[in-house]
Amino acid sequence: MRTNTHTYTHIKTDLMDHFKACYVVIGRVVHAFISCFLYVIFIRSVSLRGDSLKTMFVAVAIDGNNHILPIAFGLAMENNPYRFTWFLIRLREALRHGREALFITNMDDVVSSCIKHLFPDSYHGYTYKSVFMYMRTRGVSGRTLQPLF
């Protein structure tokens, strides 16, 4: 039987053994990311629809040809700072590289504070779409912003 070495999964349950969160990273994907990619990681949390409200956390990288390399996935029963911190701790354990990274996220104070706390030597930036939307909510017109992006 073949196995995927260095694949890392973590499942969190409560005291009654009910599902709370899970995390999955595939070892070969992490190896490819560490050896072949720039350390630019895009992180996003997405609320899933359905009967049970869940949140999916995703960390991906993009290569020189704009192909996406999914690095890590997480699924949690709720979206809160504790669960996002838990996801980032698992990601840090999987990467364990010691190199600085650049994290690109949406404009979210929870995400920013978690990244600053868990990856103090790394850089953090925002997607152009989230900056664009933030400026529009502050009263700057779309026509003024469009040439900037």
UniProtKB/TrEMBL annotation:
The keyword Aminoacyl-tRNA synthetase does not apply. Residues 54-126 form the MULE transposase domain. The keyword DNA-binding does not apply. Keywords: Membrane, Transmembrane, Transmembrane helix. Pfam families: MULE (PF10551). It comes from the Eukaryota. The chain crosses the membrane at residues 21-42. InterPro entries: MULE_transposase_dom. PANTHER family: POLYPROTEIN, PUTATIVE-RELATED, TRANSPOSASE, MUDR, PLANT, MULE TRANSPOSASE DOMAIN-CONTAINING PROTEIN. This is MULE transposase domain-containing protein. It comes from Lactuca sativa. The lineage of its organism: Eukaryota, Viridiplantae, Streptophyta, Embryophyta, Tracheophyta.
